[in-house]
Amino acid sequence: MSVTNKDVAGIFSEMADLTELQDGNAFRIRSFRRVAQVLEDLHESVTSLYESGALSDIPGVGKGTVRRVGQIIETGTCDDHRELREKMPAGLLDMLQISGMGPKTVKLVYERLGVSSVDELEAACKAGHLAELPRMGEKTQDRILKSIESWRKRSGRMPLGEAIPAGKRFLDALGALGCVERCDLAGSSRRRRETIGDLDVLVASREVAPVMDAFVAQPLVAEVLLRGDTKCSVRLESGLQVDLRVLEPESYGAALHYFTGSQMHNIAIRDRGKRAGLRINEYGVYREPTEEGQEPVLIGGASEEEVFAAVKLPYIPPELRENRGEIEAAEKGTLPELITDADLRGDLHVHTDAAEGQDSLEAMVDAAIELGRTYLAITDRISSPEKLAEQRTAIAMLQEKCDEIRLLAGVEVVIGPDGELSLDEATLREAEWVIACAHDGFDQSGEKMLARLERAMKSGLVDCIGHPANRILGGRPGAPIDHDKLIALAKETGVFIELDSDPRRLDLDAAHCRQAREHDVMVALCSDARSAAELARTEYGIYTARRGWLEVANVLTAQPVEVLLERRAARLSG
Ligand code: DGT
Ligand code: CA
Ligand code: CA
């Protein structure tokens, strides 16, 4: 079983909380908390330390801790943790996260009111029961209700598409300060994970106070959580937490690498350094002394390139830093040349006000030209052949007047419950590009959904399957289709698969993009725009494609238009 340091630390801190709720021994509570902190700060993987027997050498780690860690690595929990959990409802731990709810108060409402979850706590506040308890009152009750609201906002991860715009506003504001030499996003937002736990912002500056002043004064900030010597944390109106770190320019690269993560990538890089006699941390790269009594010597860390160069590797783009083969690829010189925004040539999934879109055909075309696209397929979901013919004429007339962009009269066809298509064969043959999507059945079995997609793919009339899993981030998980089979079908039928850039979809996801690349199946990276402004959300598709190791050769919309026209011509004649 693979557990991260954070997982193990989390269990120790839960044991501390539970012991406290159960009036346990104060020494034990403190000891669990201390171990959690030690594990959080560890610079090596707790699993490898345990396996090599070196865990007990860490200060603060005793025999009991080693035993518990061993159990956690093996089973995901340990005896003490299990016992503590059995004595109390798990909802009490959630209640502890509500500001104003310390262990004493949680116990009080549990014992006096039988409240054992956040939902019940909310109901008790609304009914006025909390105010009737000793040492409580209306004011406290109101404050707790507010805290519940903000807890709801911040529990759960935020889609990248909501976190990035907030991050950019911080970068713009801080970057404009005279004393700031550099600033960047770090953490999961820089690795472009599809959801974000909290935002990490790094600044290189010799002055801390003015940077923090500007940071906490940002209009999005609702609450300052912490202001320390170099670190400051705030909570935004949206519930998102933002961590700022102000760093010396000399160690900025080492810090940027460290705080970009992922933790598993960092651990692998640090282990590699160790084997070469180097110590790598957030302050820099150091050569370990060869003789007793000498100090480590700083040999780099102003830039991330120096960190990678120290361990004899080329620069690894942040999107790849998940310890999923990127270090091996860097070593062999086989890192992908990741696709960029500038590589996109066309967009093949776009809606206008002729159907579900907001903007006119002309407005969509102008915006696509503005973005540098050289071809654009209009793919409204229109179910009347006559209306589609009208739109085709309008597109042809517009094409007459403009030669900067090749327009394709396409259509989005709906895949029905048994895989049948919502338009007849003659109509689909007249279209220049057909994208087929299922819009229901996300609660269906994976087999059922895949069977529907398969029938559409084998119809010979469809060029591309749109958003295949049909998921909504933070909404619904999408159909559990076997993507190996989907990709094999794409290979067999010559049908492309979409990467829908809608930041609430990002479907294909990054792992499936990488799978498509391994099987040499091209991905159609499209905006699925419903307005002119949304054409630019291919930004998020590009992030996802990069996390999926995609290069220009793997992306259909980074190819000249002939590639898809020829594929379609061959399909219709074959
Ligand atoms: P998130 O916020 O859950 O979306 O994910 P991250 O990756 O942004 O995680 P976060 O904000 O806790 O920390 C940012 C980075 O800092 C993380 O990717 C790696 C580094 N880091 C944080 N804590 C530790 C740690 O205890 N050990 C190591 N090795 N690295 C850490
Ligand atoms: Ca983070
Ligand atoms: Ca953070």
Largest sheet: 7 strands, parallel
| 3D shape | globular
Number of domains: 4
DSSP E strands, number: 17
- What's the pLDDT, averaged over the residues? 94
Identify low-pLDDT runs.
Answer: none
Fold topology:
Layout: H1 5-21, H2 26-41, H3 46-52, H4 63-75, H5 79-86, H6 91-96, H7 103-113, H8 118-126, H9 138-154, E1 158-159, H10 160-175, E2 180-186, H11 187-191, E3 195-196, E4 199-205, H12 209-216, E5 221-227, E6 231-236, E7 241-247, H13 252-260, H14 263-275, E8 278-281, E9 284-287, E10 297-300, H15 304-310, H16 326-332, E11 346-347, H17 361-370, E12 375-378, H18 385-401, E13 406-414, H19 425-430, E14 433-437, H20 446-457, E15 464-465, H21 483-493, E16 496-500, H22 510-518, E17 523-526, H23 538-547, H24 562-573
Parallel strand pairs: 4-7, 11-12, 12-13, 13-14, 14-15, 15-16, 16-17
Antiparallel strand pairs: 1-3, 2-4, 5-6, 6-7, 8-9, 9-10
Descriptive account of the structure:
This protein is α/β, with parallel strands linked by helices. The chain has 4 domains: about 5-155, DNA polymerase beta, N-terminal domain-like (DNA polymerase, domain 1), CATH 1.10.150.110; about 160-245, Beta Polymerase, domain 2, CATH 3.30.460.10; about 255-330, DNA polymerase, thumb domain (Beta Polymerase, domain 3); about 340-574, Alpha-Beta Barrel (TIM Barrel), CATH 3.20.20.140. It has 24 helices and 17 strands. It starts with a helix and ends with a helix. The model has no long low-confidence stretch (mean pLDDT about 95). The protein binds 2'-deoxyguanosine-5'-triphosphate and calcium ion (CA) (2 copies). 2'-deoxyguanosine-5'-triphosphate binds near residues 258 and 262.
